[in-house]
């Protein structure tokens, strides 16, 4: 199972010149916990950072900075952690755990943004898999009962 098969392809993006306030408004409008900072390179949207709701709280609100006066590029860390759409879900989960991140932009072979994967997505997928496995066990019991004399 690859990340590309299960990532969310509807990514909310922003440019570095936009204000932090605009980033927060986009998160609220789209009910998401992040926006991906992109740059246009050779006609492709390339992710260069990510701003999360936690970043807004820790980096802007807690120190009392004015969100309308800060640009997104002012709080984004250089060299974002990215994964490729052909990467294994389990490998990506392990990498996310090691880096202590909950969301990761997903890129294609050319480095263009194609989606985002979040721990919440992985939890939902694992829950579905566990439900399927439980159904198999339940069906096995039913078959045993039906076959008994």
TrEMBL record:
Pfam families: CBS. InterPro entries: CBS_dom, CBS_dom_sf, Diverse_CBS-Domain. Keywords: CBS domain. It comes from the Bacteria. The keyword Transmembrane helix does not apply. Residues 7-68, 76-133 form the CBS domain. SMART domains: CBS. Gene3D superfamilies: CBS-domain (3.10.580.10). PANTHER family: CBS DOMAIN-CONTAINING PROTEIN, CBS DOMAIN-CONTAINING PROTEIN CBSX3, MITOCHONDRIAL. This is CBS domain-containing protein. It comes from Nitrococcus mobilis Nb-231.
